[in-house]
Amino acid sequence: MDAADLLRRNQDQAADDPSPPIPLCGTLLRQHRHICALFSSREDEYRTTLPFIQDGLARGERAYHLIGADRQDDHVRRLNAAGSDTAELQRSGQFELHGWDETYFGGEGYFDPDRWLAVLEQNLASGPRITRFLAHMEWALEDRPGVDRIVEYEARANYLWRKYKDAVICCYDLTRFSGDVVIDIMRTHPLVIIGGILQENPFFVSPDELIEEIRSRRGAAA
Fold first, then answer.
1. Over the range 40-78, which residues count as b (16 or more CB within 10 Å of their CB) and which as e?
2. End-to-end C-alpha distance for the chain, whole angstroms
């Protein structure tokens, strides 16, 4: 399903869906708001994500960005160049920028999906404003315990995101993640952005089915 078909489908659902639409890549996000975005360069990434970020800030929505420490200065510079006063937005609480240690690794040095999903839910349930999350996923490339559970985490995240109106773009750098990981990750997201085009993901597998598959893999490897 291409962007034009997806736009028509989302418009048809508008009367039945109380969630305010979120524009992204020439279409509207409605029911599904857990998006996998595959990029080959920072320029490709920001061509897609900056309009999503700026639109949310202009609407008064929250921006919650998970970015590695090595890229945070560049990220802030790009937001400022696009017209955002990030210092003021951070002071007001509308914009939050976080690294890996205090979020995914919980200050403990390892990744625990249960812990992080609980933190996310507290954040999502904390107020009436929609939050637009931007999550760089390179934390899963670090040599830390638990990072091998990323596919399980992304599958389980669908249980969480479908309960709220908030949206998340999970950004994956195709130059750093292996093809096998990318294929599995794609199966955990109902929507995918490839080449700047948002599509309904034909490879999406329901979280119940995928989690059972992951458990079977572990049992076979034991």
1. eeeebbbebbbebbeebbeeebbbbbbbeeeeeeebbeb
2. 39
Digit-coded pLDDT (tens) for 64-94: 999 999 999 999 999 999 999 999 999 999 9
Select the more confidently predicted residue: 1 or 217. 217
- Alpha helix stretches (DSSP H) within the chain: 3-13, 42-58, 72-81, 86-92, 113-124, 150-161, 179-186, 207-221
192-215 tens-digit pLDDT: 999 999 999 999 999 999 999 988
Distance of alpha carbon 120 from alpha carbon 30, whole angstroms: 20
Whose CA is closest to 150, among 190, 96, 124, 189? Answer: 189
pTM across the whole model: 0.89
Instruction: Say which residues have a Cβ less than 8 Å from residue 29's Cβ, sequence separation at least 6.
Output: 10, 21, 22, 23, 35, 167, 191
**Domain definitions of the chain by residue range:** 20-28+46-164+202-222
Contacts with 80 (C-beta within 8 Å, 6 or more apart), sequence order: 86
